[in-house]
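The passage that follows is intended for readers who have already worked through the single-chain material. We present the inputs for a multi-component assembly, then the predicted structure in tokenized form, and finally a short commentary. You are encouraged to pause after the input and sketch how you expect the pieces to fit together before reading on.
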Amino acid sequence: MKGDLFNRGDGSLKIIFCYIVLGLMSFVCVYPVLNILSIALRPGSRLFQTNLKIIPDNATIENFRIALFERDFGLWLFNSLKVASITTIITILVSFSAAYAFSRYKFKGKSITMTSFLLTQIFPAPMLLLPTFILLKYFGWLNTHLGLIIPYIAGAVPFCVWTMKGFFDTVPYSIEESAYIDGANLFQVFFRIITPLSLPAIGVVSLFAFTGAWNEYIMARQVVSDEDLITLPLALTNMQGQFNTEWGVFAAASIMTAVPVMLVFISLSKFMVGGLTLGGVKG
Amino acid sequence: MQGQSKLQPYYLIFPAILVLFLIVGFPLVYGIWISLTNMNLVNFLEPHFIGIKNYIDVLTSRQLFQDIVRTFYWTFVNVFFHVTCGLFLALLLNRKLPGKNIFRVLIMIPWAMPQYIAVLAWKNMFRTQYGAIDIIFNKLGIENIAWLSDPSWTFTASIITNIWLGIPFMMANLLGGLQSIPNELYEAAEIDGITRWQKLKSITLPLLKPVLTPAIVLGTVMTFNMMNVIVIMTEGSGSSQTEILVTRVYRTAFSYFSYGNAAATSVIIFFMLAAFSSLFIKVTKGDKGVYD
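Having made your guess, compare it with the prediction:
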């Protein structure tokens, strides 16, 4: 039995060690979030308490109710979902094709193009704010979701290209070669061969693009001022900026903002499970 | 790849280049132009060309050297822990362990929280008397630390927060890379009686390199330019002793409205990171594939 559940040759001590480390790390990762949860569950708007209880005395879900039904949470959620999913889909398509070219072809200017992709990421963000604003104004994209989506794509593409290119490099060319010999065209190779083999990379990259668009608020604040268009993080910072912050509602809304990302992660994590290339090379 | 147009790779990279050129190209050139002007709040609409005066001001300021040292320290400590902890966790989660999916989801939580919220949560935990860390220290009988009022401790608190924020991203990235290493290689190596350390050194790390190199380069760039954590953490207690280069750009531009000076600092950051990235890629040959 043990041979099927664990790596071969692992002693019980080692397995226990693995679980202890993972348990400890999970606790460290989750604890600050539990802290927010604890604020959300407190009655009224108390930010401070002097004990470590996660479930406070007189715990109530009143703050969640207020955030959900007395604020425009549904609208903010819809806006965020729209912006983040369109960003993710376009980013994946654009990066996939570029990464494939970088990984599989030799062409003039390849090295310099790859490096300049990286260079676009290194100019400090605060200095890009003003020129981006001017540019979006010129295109008439201020106060539109497109004005958020396009810059978010530009922000995610370089990383995604590099990561996918690195991943494609680890996939042996022999599989595609035989497909080309059998008369497959580029698109068939893309969708029938490369996509299934690179699901782990697509998973990571989608998550990167999605969370990037989901959590960004500094640029969003410059681009979108229309109340009907604001995204979740923007709504959250607005709530905190108000004269008298309702910490409980703020905390409840924060927790709920993280939930969709968790759901996306859980649904993507199935793709990140291994053993894919192995079968491919054998076949 | 015979029989295919020589132009094909250019078609494939064209959409990516278009987006980047549009959205990053112009702002970059514009930023360089601002750095050569005296743009500030007063002459915002009619800045004058003043040559390299901003660069001279930045390069001769007494703060600069300290800020650079602090930025290097910040970047190195953060990236070091991101990569080592991320790799360690990825290796653990790449094993066969029943229930590991639960751990994997829990460890991703710092990445799922909006950064702004996560940093506020940590700031709350670092508070004197009411903060979770202080309460725990009290119970253990450790003397309280003035996390948020002593600048050097605020900086440490920011580093701790940023390490926490960055590990899941690195872990997910490396886990993706680990999945692509065929199991057969390990099985073959085991038959040859290889030690665990050799396995890591001669199979895992070399095959992980195409994923690891961009992850380290981008991780370094992102950490170097990470301003949210320090800006939020020091809000209300700002001090020159917690400043790194990018927060300096932020404050010069948005507190002192001295855009020309901020842009000059940005251009200097740009060249420092460009030098680092190209050197790192050259040394590790990160742009070449493993099977090249």
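Commentary: Residues 76 and 230 of chain A are 6 Å apart (CA to CA). DSSP finds 14 helices and no strands in chain A. How closely did your sketch match?
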